[in-house]
Amino acid sequence: MGLPAMKTFREVARRVGPWLVTAGLIAWVAATTQFDGLRSAVALADFGTFSILAVAFAAAHLLLDSAGLHALLQRTGIGIPYPRLLAIRASSYLLGFINYNLAFVLIAAAAARGRSVRWQSLASPFIALNLIDLFVVSAILIAGLASGSGDHLKAGVPTLLAVGAILGLLGLPAVMAAAAHARAGRRKDAPSGLLHTFRASGPAGVAAVLGLRVILLAFDMSGDFLMLGTFNLDIPVGVFMQLFAVDSFACVLPITVAGIGPTMVLMRAFFEPYVTQAGGSTAAIDAFSASATASLAVIRTVTALCCMPFALKAGLGRTIKEIRGDQ
């Protein structure tokens, strides 16, 4: 296979691969679902409370997520007014369905409008955001593992997860140390690179954003845990923390569309032993995961479409045209 053919194959795999993986995971879940039990679980679910929780926590997520982004962009010197950023972040959900980080490309392009900014500085706040989130998610995973709830995991898996979590915790301080070293060797107004946000923020600034992301992920975790109860699922908090952390990581990987599929499979793996021990059916897990995935997609799509006019008024349309013009 020649070089052009290899490039074509990689491009096709990059574009089609996530759709195939998503379709395969959904097909496997559908093929192994107990539909009689699924109908019973849906009939017994409290959809009224579920819907209220889903909408309320989706709104809280948007507000808190945008607050963290706003702080990082401000510290990097490419700030966007919070109301405008809120509309752009909501509109970017449509791109986030394709790839989690693709939504950030739109925000970065909006931040760059009218400014002479190097691409490294544009990427810097989003690198910082991912490292901060990884730190928080890793801490949640370690706390979940430390709870002692690990009977559902095969031998060796807790150790593997613990090692991964420790590495996740080390990433943020390692990069902060590198940024501090770079800052010490540069003038304060020197040209910036991928560490720009860390150098400009300093430890206090990073700690402030870390606090915002802890609040965000605590809200997300609380909302998901409360919604479990509306489907009569009684899962130990420690087990749920493990699932939340692993699922948060899996859903941002560019191997599925909008993280659909991994959540359903992971919920079975983590929750099934506890549901069956209580005399319940795994169909209740499938009913919840399908409902949670579908509701999130609907809420974010509606939110994006409602916020799109405000985002376009704030210059999003020109930003999209500029992105197309660069391609």
Structure overview:
The protein is mainly alpha-helical. The protein has one domain (about 45-325). It contains 13 helices and no strands. Helix 11 packs antiparallel against helix 12. The protein is globular, with a radius of gyration of 21 Å. About 35% of the residues are buried.
Distance between the termini: 27 Å
Helix content: over 70%
Number of domains: 1
Major sheet summary line: none
Count of discrete alpha- or pi-helical segments spanning 4 or more residues: 13
* Shape by Cα distribution: globular
**Overall pLDDT level:** 84
Order of helices and strands: HHHHHHHHHHHHH
Cα gyration radius (Å): 21 Å
Summarize the topology.
Layout (H helix, E strand, L loop, with lengths): L2 H29 L3 H10 L2 H30 L5 H10 L1 H4 L5 H11 L6 H28 L10 H28 L11 H34 L7 H16 L9 H16 L4 H32 L2 H11 L1
Helix pairs in contact: 2-12, 3-4, 3-7, 3-9, 3-12, 4-12, 7-8, 7-9, 7-10, 8-9, 10-11, 11-12
